[in-house]
Amino acid sequence: MKRVWAFDIGASNGRLMVNSFDGKYMYLEEIYRFPNFPVQVTNNYYWDILNIYSEMKKAMKKSIYKGFDQIESMGIDTWGVDFGLLSNTGEILCNPYSYRNPRNIEGMERVLDQISSDELFGLTGLEIASINTLFQLYTIKEANPKLLEQAETLLLTPNLLAYLFSGQKYNEFTISSTTQMLSAFDKDWDKNILDRLSLPKDLMAPIVEPYTIAGETLPAINKEMEMDPVKVTYTAGHDTACALAALPLEDDQSIFMSCGTWVLIGVPVDDPVTHANAMKWGFTSEGTMDGYYRLQKNNMGMWLLQQSRLIWEREGITTDYENENRLFMESEPLQSLIDPDHPSFFTPNNMIEAIQQFCRDTNQVVPKTQGEIIRCILESLALKYRWVINHLEILTGKKLKRIHMGGGAIRNQILCQLTANATELKVIAGPIEASSIGNAIGQWIALGEVKNIKEAREVVKRSFPLKEYKPQDSDKWEDKYNYFNENILQG
User: Fold this and answer.
1) Taking a C-beta distance cutoff of 8 angstroms, is the pair 484, 337 a contact?
2) Do 226 and 293 lie in a common domain?
3) What letters, b where the CB count within 10 A reaches 16 and e where it falls short, cover 366-382?
4) What is the pLDDT of residue 490?
5) pLDDT tier, 43 (very low <50, low <70, confident <90, very high otherwise)
6) Carbohydrate kinase FGGY N-terminal domain spans which residues (predicted)?
7) Can you say whether residue 198 is alpha, beta or left, with left for phi > 0 and alpha for psi between -120 and 50 degrees?
8) Is-above-0.85 flag for pTM?
9) In which band, very low, low, confident or very high, does the pLDDT at 261 lie, cut at 50, 70 and 90?
10) How many whole angstroms separate alpha carbon 107 and alpha carbon 115?
């Protein structure tokens, strides 16, 4: 049986999974999991990239200690948009900035003074958002120009980590499609955009397709780990592209939802969608593992609940899924709603107070208890997901029939059921570790063990459990959706 290492590094935690494949079934075993949060220093948020790298090596050691030492390949996927800068000697110039830096908004505004949002969306197909790499890079140009002058190479986060293990400098297609610098027409860097903004055109490392084997782990790492060289493979670098590859979509009427700190909702499409309504409604076109695109919307996910839990922990209130489910059931349904993607929830000092203030401002019952806060979050998420799916149907001209949910947040079975209720669609949940499985799929295709995505999805169906949720209480949700759409989203 052959094995690969799948590193799935998210914006709140990272993990190493060993994916084993016997030619018919895949088997997944978690080796190590570690927290990963941006670090605030003065007025900036950074990623501690060397700590991530150190934790990854720790995970490799644990894998070898457990007997998983004959590894064919390793692949890395992460969240999108963030990056590191290398000097001409290959040194990392500073800890990478986090997309949560508030000053990126100013950078975005300065860019849009020079290239209109309509034009930029038409060139890239990407939602105009302050987190995008282009705006971050322009912010550095304005606020820290000497850093950019010293930089020779920009590597996006999964490719930066791959560089630390292999020494190879490339940016992979799917993660590159999150930058607002990738041309919607030829899958290459739009150097016209960079030139108009006086950004260095040669900074961007060349783009490679998924399934590319970059090379092998560096001799120093092999010596440190006491292991044989391992191939370093560019699987899909973006975690959502990995998750989509692992979801067993049935046809072109299937919706995917990659569920974690963020929830990405969309459908596969052949080409980027760049017309006006897509931009108006906040949709974006990003790359897929098989070289196409996914028309999707980035939505708030478990961030709201994660941040609320931090407040409860500070107050000495411990919680877990079982307790949260009980508190949810004890609270009144559909009495307090928020727009989960409202700017006030992006980086609040106190998430619970931000939720309560939103409800006051919209003349609703203010949730006070833990159960009321949990219910407010989860029901609001489900209703927002219905809004997204309704607009996907308009953009594609298709009647969408089912939802495939994958990712760690589907452990929250209440969220899965509420999503079915609110959308009035059947939900097929699984696999939980969709990003890690998709990461491994990219490696197995690169290694020639699996033919393509279609074949890989059949392997996933055989190998991992799926759970179905059917809509309930349709009338109640229909009325509340109309209220949500008219008073919460528009209010």
Assistant:
1) yes
2) no
3) ebeebbbbbbbbbbbbb
4) 65
5) confident
6) 6-244
7) left
8) yes
9) confident
10) 12
- Tell which residue, 135, 20, 145, 44, has the closest CA to residue 96: 44
Residue-wise pLDDT for 179-221, tens only, equals: 999 999 899 999 999 999 999 989 999 999 999 999 999 999 9
Are residues 191 and 294 both part of a single domain?
no
- Give mean pLDDT, residues 420-446: 97
Number of H helices, E strands in the chain: 19, 19
- Structural domain count of the chain: 2
Residue 210 half-sphere exposure toward CB, CA atoms < 13 A: 31
Please tell me whether residue 488 adopts helix, strand or coil conformation. Answer: helix
Structure tokens at 253: 């009427």
Residues forming the active site: 239
Query: Based on the domain organization, do 464 and 376 belong to the same domain?
Result: yes
The reply to whether 254 and 360 lie within a common domain is yes
DSSP string for residues in 9-37? E-SSEEEEEEEEE-SS-EEEEEEEEEE--
Q: Give me the percent of the chain exceeding a pLDDT of 90.
A: 93
Please check whether residues 257 and 199 belong to one and the same domain: no
Query: Alpha carbon of 57 to those of 38, 242, 365: distances in Å?
Result: 20, 22, 49
Residue 213: burial class (beta carbons within 10 Å; 0-12, 13-18, 19+): middle
- Domain range enclosing 194: 2-239
Q: To which H or E segment does residue 110 belong?
A: helix 104-112
Domain-embedded: residue 442? no
Could you tell me the CATH number of the domain that includes residue 407? Answer: 3.30.420.40
